[in-house]
Amino acid sequence: MSIHCDLRRIYGALAASLPRGEDPDNDASVSFHRGNLPVPPDELHSDQLVLCKGEHVYNGWYRADAVSIELGHRTARELGLFLLACMFHGPARDVWLRFDHPDSQVRHLVVPCNPFDGPLEARPTMMPCALRYHPSEPFKHPWTWQQLHPEELPLLALTTVDQTPASDEDWRRRDTLRQASSYEGTLRFGELLLNAGCPIYEQREYALEGDAGFRGVAPMSAEITLWLPGSFGWGGRDGLER
Fold this sequence. Notes:
Blueprint: H1 6-16, E1 30-32, E2 43-46, E3 49-58, E4 62-71, H2 73-89, E5 95-99, E6 108-111, E7 131-133, E8 156-159, H3 168-172, E9 176-179, H4 183-196, E10 205-208, E11 223-227
Parallel strand pairs: 2-5, 4-11, 6-9
Antiparallel strand pairs: 1-7, 3-4, 5-6, 8-9, 10-11
Helix pairs in contact: 1-2, 2-4
């Protein structure tokens, strides 16, 4: 099986070196920061993720965007490291991750450029400097009981490449996720992907719902479901590594 994945090429070695959650009492924690995360290029490609669009209907009268993501354990960790690298390095230009698997309905993930890359207003500006990571098995709805503020959750907006869906046809052809999380939301989602990539954990499905469900994403985000190998939604698609 030939794999074409820039995530693997850039972040694979670091992902493979992380603790796997097999010995929670003795697993060493790892600190991520600008010094040990490879700088993301402006454009990456991967054929190891399949993102499908859908809807989640609540009570017969509320409809939310929903995106399901099928990915293997190694890819989950590599994607998590990529998102953390984008946050800590603060790219000067938008970073594009292109999804090349033929079954993927969403074709792009855009991480916007650093909003602080330019003149700052005359006020204090706080930016994260590190994340200390220790493996921990998440729940299916990972943050339901933590009573978090909605802005501390991930925000992945489903839109068009040019961000101007106007007509019904434009809305139907949306094929781009735009990362618009706060720093807290990015850290939280990146850590979830690192934990989801531990194959020893029995939980293989993670559902990040909106405010109508078990709150797991910020307002205006698409709902996100992660399907890992062995879960109900894992399709075993051609070319997708477990």
